[in-house]
Design a protein that fits this description.
Elements (H helix, E strand, L loop, with lengths): L3 E9 L4 E3 H7 L4 H8 L3 E3 L6 H16 L8 E5 L10 H8 L6 E5 L5 H14 L6 E7 L12 H6 L3 E9 L5 E9 L7 E2 L13 H5 L6 E2 L1 H22 L7 E6 L4 H11 L10 H4 L6 H11 L8 E8 L3 E8 L1
Parallel strand pairs: 4-5, 4-6, 11-12
Antiparallel strand pairs: 1-7, 2-3, 6-7, 8-13, 9-10, 12-13
Helix pairs in contact: 3-4, 8-9
The structure holds oxa(dethia)-CoA (UT7).
């Protein structure tokens, strides 16, 4: 059975940089609070781009690295919680815009774990021989849904926009995706969610929904933090155990960029140096499904890992969902 290899990777972030100083001007917050509580210094916000715009730009870079013509891609998986429209998803939009054939294309909504969930789905298709050239995108333009005022300052300073993409193909050696592990606990749905629009509401859209701000994301930050600090180390250990690997065998851990303090907690709980846990949250904030492919793409560019190294991806987010992947590059 062939294993799945990442043959191309790329990322794209909108040009518009929003610094902590910019946030200070529009809400009751401070650079000091944001930096010490989250590690974030700036993030990118779309001006007139959509999620699929960001996805196309990241995908183009991944395809160039993989030396694959868009016409040869045979499946698109687009992980996002901020698709351009309620339906259909972004995947079919990029199929058309990138000139791909009439291949399968679908969106995957697993929030911050969306990229690893997508990687796991793609891995099954490749291992089973059903598909041979899959494009997986993680992209978000979530600043559009957030309210930038003092009442919503917890979420407002945390989230950012961006996209990352990979091309997945069967490996011709022993390098590639070694394992993926997926988990969920739906008893925490309301700890990080955007309730509307949805089938829970009659009528679907109403003045009440808007007055009650059901269309704006809500987060129970402390509960998310507490669970993330437990689940990240747990799912990383699961990946290690499954592959008979020790932490010393891992060149780099690339976590979903949720909060620098969560990464510090994970490093402490695993007993590894913080340098082994990649972070670029200071530049982009939390970009949900895009954060892991952006981080992986930047870490590769920076030479933090290279051919033959084993890395672990790990994510935690809304749902709750959490996941890990072990990859021999
Ligand atoms: O990808 C998964 C998605 N989310 C996460 O991973 C987030 C996980 N949670 C967190 O990162 C943290 O809980 C936050 C960064 C969101 C908040 O940090 P915290 O240390 O847990 O703060 P807190 O919620 O306990 O709030 C402490 C204080 C509160 O003021 P009072 O009630 O003590 O007066 C907040 O109102 O900090 C206040 N606060 C802020 N102050 C300045 C909340 N947001 C801000 C802000 N600026 N932006």
């Amino acid at each position: 059975m062939k294993i799945t290899k990442i043959t191309g990777i790329g990322h794209y972030v909108p040009e518009n940089v929003v610094t902590n100083a910019d946030m200070e001007k529009i809400m009751d917050t401070s650079d000091e609070w944001i930096t010490t509580r989250t590690g974030i210094k700036e993030r990118r916000h779309v001006v007139d781009e959509t999620t699929s715009d960001l996805g196309v730009k990241a995908a183009e870079k991944a395809l160039i690295m993989a030396r694959i013509d868009p016409k040869d891609i045979d499946l698109i998986i687009f992980s996002t919680i901020s698709s351009d429209h309620y339906f259909p998803g972004c995947a079919t939009q990029i199929q058309d815009r990138m000139g791909m054939k009439n291949i399968g294309a679908f969106d995957l909504k697993a929030a911050c774990s969306g990229f690893i969930y997508g990687l796991s789905v793609a891995d099954q298709f490749i291992k089973s021989g059903v598909h041979e050239r899959i494009l997986l995108v993680g992209a978000e333009a979530q600043s559009v849904a957030i309210k930038f005022d003092s009442e919503h300052r917890d979420l407002a300073v945390l989230f950012g926009d961006g996209a990352g993409a990979v091309v997945l193909q069967p490996s011709d050696d022993d390098t590639g995706v070694l394992s993926t592990h997926l988990h969920s606990d739906g008893s925490h749905v309301e700890d990080l969610w955007m309730p509307a629009p949805g089938s829970s509401f009659r009528p679907f859209i109403s003045k009440e929904i808007i007055d009650d701000e059901m269309h704006i994301p809500y987060m129970n930050g402390r509960e998310v933090f507490k669970n993330a600090s437990i689940r990240f180390p747990e799912v990383i250990q699961e990946a290690l155990k499954h592959n008979n690997l020790a932490l010393e065998d891992i060149k780099l851990i690339i976590p979903h960029q949720a909060n620098l303090r969560i990464s510090q907690m994970v490093a402490k709980r695993l007993g590894v140096a913080l340098e082994k846990i990649y972070s670029n949250i200071h530049r982009y904030g939390n970009t949900t499904a895009a954060s892991i492919p952006i981080a992986m793409s930047e870490a590769l560019d920076e030479g933090k890992f290279s051919q033959g190294d084993t890395i672990i991806l790990a994510a935690f987010g809304s749902g709750f969902t959490w996941a890990s992947a072990a990859i021999k590059w």
